[in-house]
Amino acid sequence: MKLTAPTYHVVFGFFGLILGFSLTRIGFADYGEVHKMFAFVDLRLFLTFVGAVVMTMIGYAIVAHNAAMPRKPLHRGTIAGGVLFGAGWAVTGACPAVALVQLGAGYLPGLATAIGIALGVWSYRRVHARYFRWDTGACQM
């Protein structure tokens, strides 16, 4: 079924609201709760996150059953990017989706996180184009 632009936005907006509500409800949008997870003080969020990853892996395996999945190369910037992403998440208490949820909930520090994300993407484009120029594969911008 082909969705028209307005229907597309309504459908995905609805699922976005459900995601935002769920993330807020379980505590992923609360800096204190995320800090406890990264400090291993309270494993509730950590186990929720692990459970979500496992469920996604199972769903992916079911959908991709008997399909030849192409191998993706490990790019030179993957490890550094992952470390920066994790450090930013630990410092701000928000990944990109949660920053938007925090903005929607009126949490002002979420604005600083969203600005930091935008500046990081903007900086990456300039630094990569000038200094690195390695193949970004499917992550081409």
TrEMBL record:
This is Uncharacterized protein. The lineage of its organism: Bacteria, Pseudomonadati, Pseudomonadota, Gammaproteobacteria, Acidiferrobacterales. The chain crosses the membrane at residues 45-67, 79-101, 107-124. It comes from Sulfurifustis variabilis. Keywords: Membrane, Transmembrane, Transmembrane helix. It comes from the Bacteria. InterPro entries: Sulf_transp_TsuA/YedE. Pfam families: Sulf_transp.
